[in-house]
Amino acid sequence: MPKLTEEYEELRKTVEAFARDVVAPVIGDLYEREQFPYDIVRQMGAMGLFGLPIPEEYGGMGGDYFALCLALEELARVDSSVSITVEAAVSLGAMPIYRFGTPEQRAEWLPRLTSGEMLGAFGLTEPGGGSDVPGGMRTTAVLDGDEWVINGTKAFITNSGTDITGVIGVAAITGERPGGKKEISTILVPSGTPGLTVSKKYSKVGWNCSDTRELSFDGCRVPAGNLLGGRGRGYAQFLQTLDEGRVAIAALSTGLAQGCVDESLRYVRERRAFGHPIGHYQAIQFKIADMEVRTHTARLAYYHAAEKMLAGESFKKEAAIAKLVAGDAAMDNARDATQIFGGYGFMNEYPVGRFYRDAKILEIGEGTSEVQRMLIAREMGLSGL
């Protein structure tokens, strides 16, 4: 395992302590009631977690994307709802504005996004789209004078309907390219804009403390200056955003996998059967050993992808590998941890019950496992055979 620098290790320990001392005592009750953790978000904002990879001139911490990944891993060791709230707010909300925004857009939005005072969201997925994002896109934006008029629907959008949601980047068809392909652009839509309707929260299997909703746009008008990046650059922007986001989701998945190991190690020392702690038995030992192997491998994978990203090298394949390996590790570890806990693993009062419910989406969100395999094969030159 690569040794973390003193600065990275200090950040990791700080977030670890916060997750243990602040998140863990209250998250089970919030999860059961499906309540968004506003107080936790406020405290994470005060810590600077929402601004980790953003320069100080915009209110950020001046760190990098790997620092964000370390924080996401430590949060997910305790709860993935909290971790995905940060991941989506930073990777999908703030980072596109930082990467592609004008100086005016950065000045307007980033200070509030990096402080956690406001959350950002990214409206990409549509009800009939799934993995075929451009093919399934139906949302349109037409320039009418000095305003964009947006019509369409977005599905499964994280952070889109909280009391502190401030801006949503919306991918929309803004024209047609030569050859008939869709011209896709990203447009910033402030919360509360007339014509934007935010649905009630989805009833979800997991991530019950995170905010996920459907959005509808009916003649929704925003200024022409709300175009993010160049017209027709939305698809390229979203591909870059997802490559980075996959490294972040891999970190979150690694955290969940590690949380399964942590909880299982505690439990097998306390739970006794047939005269011994159950950790005495080789069947349990082997199961936990396999869980540790998966977690270690997942961490190495996302560390490597982050290293290439920060070095400015191509990391598309490594991001896909990390997302695939870590998502599998989270799902497999959650299943094994639940088995180790037996009947108690099926109870929501125990963290592994939450872990099991939260793990499955990690094989789906920000690119399914099948899409990751497709990307890896493509990067290996196999798609044109």
Automatic annotation (TrEMBL):
The keyword Oxidoreductase applies. Residues 121-220 form the Acyl-CoA oxidase/dehydrogenase middle domain. Residues 232-380 form the Acyl-CoA dehydrogenase/oxidase C-terminal domain. Its cofactor is FAD. It comes from Streptosporangium vulgare. This is Acyl-CoA dehydrogenase family protein. The lineage of its organism: Bacteria, Bacillati, Actinomycetota, Actinomycetes, Streptosporangiales. One of its GO terms (molecular function) is oxidoreductase activity. The keyword Flavoprotein applies. Its EC number is 1.-.-.-. Residues 5-117 form the Acyl-CoA dehydrogenase/oxidase N-terminal domain.
